[in-house]
Design brief:
With about 80 residues, the protein is an all-alpha fold. The protein contains five helices and no strands.
């Protein structure tokens, strides 16, 4: 392997790691299995708005299991208040 191929491989690996950090696929799958409807785009946008998606999705899952109608936008607004 030449140096150019190694640099391309390392660059692709770094981009893949950044992609996995930006798109929490495991969290999305957990929400899907729990019956909470959150799209991958919404999870990415939560990260860009400096909202921890784990906090919001876990609160939505707990609320859904308790039978409480929770709104994702309102939970994000409440999270950003603190």
């Amino acid at each position: 392997m030449d140096a150019f191929t190694v640099i391309i491989f390392i660059g692709c690996l770094i981009l893949f790691i950044i992609f996995l950090w930006m798109v929490p696929i495991g969290l999305w799958f957990t929400a899907l299995i729990s019956g909470v409807h959150v799209s991958l785009v919404q999870l990415i946008l939560m990260r860009w708005r400096k909202v921890d998606p784990h906090v919001i999705v876990n609160a939505m899952i707990m609320g859904a299991k308790a039978g409480l109608p929770l709104n994702r936008d309102e939970l994000e607004a409440h999270y950003l208040c603190f």
